[in-house]
Amino acid sequence: MKSVNRRDFLRMAGTSLIGMTLGGAALRANAQELLKKDDPTAKALNYTPKSTVDGSRCGNCMYIQGDESKSERPCAIFPGKLVNVDGWCSAWVKRPG
């Protein structure tokens, strides 16, 4: 097994950070279509545009992206789609903080 020196580690970490940042920007830029309940991924994750789970909604999930003033925003779970901030799916995870 090859050991990684500090310089190589910092180079890999920096490249990863840049990739994650640009990937998040691309996700926000490409999300255009509102997620429908009959979408196969939405069905698999029990997505609903109106949460029935107390205290859990897309708007306070760690996967939601974009402008917090919008009622429909991109989600990392559903690439290229917008979700309703009042929605919910089984992938919901509380946003830290």
Automatic annotation (TrEMBL):
Q: Which domain of life is it from?
A: Bacteria
Molecular function terms from GO: 4 iron, 4 sulfur cluster binding; electron transfer activity; metal ion binding
Q: Name one Pfam family in it.
A: HIPIP
Quote the InterPro entries the UniProt record gives: High_potential_FeS_prot, HIPIP_sf, TAT_signal
UniProt entry keywords in alphabetical sequence: 4Fe-4S, Electron transport, Iron, Iron-sulfur, Metal-binding, Transport
- Say yes or no: keyword Isomerase present: no
Database matches in SUPFAM superfamilies: HIPIP (high potential iron protein)
Question: Which parts of the sequence belong to the High potential iron-sulfur proteins family profile domain?
Answer: 29-97
Q: Name one GO biological process term.
A: aerobic electron transport chain
This molecule's function is given as: Specific class of high-redox-potential 4Fe-4S ferredoxins. Functions in anaerobic electron transport in most purple and in some other photosynthetic bacteria and in at least one genus (Paracoccus) of halophilic, denitrifying bacteria.
The similarity comment for this entry is: Belongs to the high-potential iron-sulfur protein (HiPIP) family.
Q: Quaternary arrangement and interactors, per the entry?
A: Homodimer.
**What is the protein name stated in its UniProt record?**
High-potential iron-sulfur protein
Q: Which organism is it from?
A: Salinimonas iocasae
